[in-house]
UniProtKB/TrEMBL annotation:
Pfam families per record: DDE_3
Domain of life the protein comes from: Eukaryota
GO molecular function terms listed in the Swiss-Prot or TrEMBL record: nucleic acid binding
Signal peptide start and end residues: none
InterPro entries, alphabetized: RNaseH_sf, Tc1-like_DDE_dom
Protein name: Tc1-like transposase DDE domain-containing protein
Organism: Oncorhynchus tshawytscha
Length: 78
């Protein structure tokens, strides 16, 4: 079994980081006053992620990997 070692917070290699970024932006646009409201808001926002957004991240994954290889681990357009 070959395992691809990659940074856990690299949007180039971990598409979930793109979703976390989207959630972070949504949270910062709100002025939530307590942890309970933050938790509820995050659960609601996470559930609202369009299927098309998730599908696009999965679809582009091979291109992301190829771009990182070409960039020799450096930054990519992703």
């Amino acid at each position: 079994l070959n395992v691809l070692e990659c940074p856990s917070q690299s949007p180039d290699l971990n598409p979930v980081e793109n979703l976390w970024h989207d959630l972070k932006i949504a949270v910062h646009q709100r002025n939530l006053s307590n942890l309970k409201k933050l938790e509820q808001f995050c659960l609601e926002e996470w559930a609202k992620i369009p299927v098309a957004r998730r599908a696009k991240l999965i679809e582009t994954y091979p291109k992301r990997l190829a771009a990182v290889i070409v960039a020799k681990g450096g930054s990519t357009m992703y």
